[in-house]
Amino acid sequence: MWAHFLTSFFAAASFVILFNAPKKSLFHCGLVGMLGWVLYVFIRGEIGEAPATLAASLLVGILCQLFAKFYRTPVIIFSVAGIIPLVPGGMAYNAMRRFVENRYDEALQIGAQTLMIAGAIAAGLVLSEVLNQMLRRRPKTV
Amino acid sequence: MEQKTSIYETIELCLLAGKVMLQSGAETYRVEDTMVRIATAFGLTESHSYVTPTVIMFSTSGEQPAKLIRIEERTTDLNKIAEVNAISRQIASGELSARDAKTLLLQAESAPFGYKLPVQILAAALTSACFLIMFGGSWPDFPAAFIAGGAGLAASVWLHRIVQVKFFAEFSAALLVGLLALLFIWGGFGYEFDRIAVGSVMPLVPGLLITNAIRDLMAGHLVSGISKGADACLTAFAIGAGIAVALIFFH
User: Fold this and answer.
1) What residue ranges are annotated as transmembrane (chain B) (predicted)?
2) Which of A36, A112, B106, B203 sits CB 3.0–4.6 Å from A56 for a disulfide?
3) Alpha-carbon span B193 to B250, nearest angstrom
4) Number of compact structural domains in chain A
5) Do residues A64 and A79 lie in contact, with contact meaning Cβ atoms separated by under 8 Å?
6) Is A116 within 8 Å of chain B by CB?
7) Is the CB of residue B157 less than 8 Å from the CB of residue B117?
8) In chain A, which residues have their Cβ closer than 8 Å to the Cβ of B76?
9) CA-CA distance, B182 to B189, in Å (whole number)?
10) What is the pLDDT of residues B162-181, one digit of tens each?
11) Closest by Cβ to A74, choosing from B85, B115, B124
């Protein structure tokens, strides 16, 4: 378990270095990536891959909005770091490998799963944005 | 007369800010929002901007003609996005004059990449190795993914410099990663080809494009969202094809 905490933190933080993220937000990027991934790993065994991805990307979205507001930095810097571990790279790879091996039925099956997970990431981000807008609007109307 | 130059200056300033942001890979809505915000801060309340991944159009209601900028080259530079964002905040709160803002923006535009190439390669190597463990790989494969991932990124950066064909760099870098992974397994340094390959191509994954495509579509920028999504899919496909070619050798 500790390996997951450690590696996801460093993976997210070093990934955003490739995109020239500001040095002072590297730690937060790592944190967002780590929390999203750890939540995903914890719950994927119980509720399945796609719902776990949805929950994790929702968490990532909320954290990003909070960090962005708190540090006055564009949201996207944090969300890249949070989303990257959730991208179904391994699954896409497996689908492609089946295609190469001419096992098309399995390939399509895994491919469809991959698309579901990609959709779950998007849906999680959308949900966090919805929450953000609802919370932001409330004080004005009251 | 003076009024006119100042409107002209404002438009130039907006376009400069938009250009720097779009070239660094900001979301469409952020670029449009920043430009309109700067324009409003300098008194042009009725301005419109239309941004796609390749072009910025900006018009103010008045006698000034609409302006257009073509964006040829797009890189990813989160630091520049953050800087221009900070500058536009300062402009909006009235802390910066047009001239100071322009100097700052030009500085931001020409700022070098914050991390040197060796640091980037190291970061890519670390990313690869960490992803290997996250995807269920074993620690003995750690060095193999570390080296393959670093080499993959180095190859992709180098190829981007010498060949101007899109997706080719990603394809060849992924192919190199696949071949290196095979080599490690033959040499006895690596054990699971699948995991090493998946971990090591992670630095090549167009993470920002994917995030941007989703965010653009959410904000209703359909043209930008779909074109960025297509770009991301093609890049992912190029990476997949590179690994696939390596797999063909494997059999």
Assistant:
1) 117-136, 142-160, 167-189, 195-217, 229-250
2) A36
3) 9
4) 1
5) yes
6) no
7) yes
8) 18-20
9) 10
10) 887 878 888 999 999 999 99
11) B85
pLDDT in tens, B109-131: 888 888 888 999 999 999 999 99
Express the helix, strand and coil content of chain A in percent, nearest 5 each.
90, 0, 10
Tens digits of residue pLDDT in B213-231 = 888 888 888 888 999 889 8
A83/B210 Cβ within 8 A:
yes
Q: What is the pTM of this model?
A: 0.84
Q: What is the pLDDT of residue A139?
A: 57
ipTM (interface predicted TM):
0.86
Of A138, A137, A123, A132, nearest to A66 by C-alpha is A132
Domains of chain B by residue range = 2-110, 117-250
Whether the CB of B134 is below 8 Å from some CB of chain A: the reply is yes
Q: Which A-chain residues 16-75 have CB contacts (< 8 A) with chain B?
A: 16-23, 25, 37, 72-75
Produce one character per residue of B77-112: b if its CB has 16 or more CB atoms within 10 Å, e if not: bbbbbbbbbbbbeebeeeebeeeebbebbeebbeee
Residue A63 CB contacts under 8 Å (≥ 6 apart), including other chains: A31, A32, A35, A36, A78, A82
Are B215 and B27 in contact by the 8 Å Cβ rule? The answer is yes
Q: Is B214 on the interface with A (CB under 8 A)?
A: yes
pLDDT band at A13 (very low <50, low <70, confident <90, very high): very high
Instruction: Give the residue from chain A lying closest to B251, CA to CA.
Output: A101
Yes or no: say if A56 and A37 are a contact pair by the CB < 8 Å rule: yes
> Which run of H or of E encompasses B12?
helix B2-23
Contact indicator for A125, A79 with CB cutoff of 8 Å: yes
Residue with tokens 């954290």: A63
The tokens describing B223, both together, are 């043209």
- From the list B169, B247, B240, the residue with the least C-alpha distance to A90 is B240
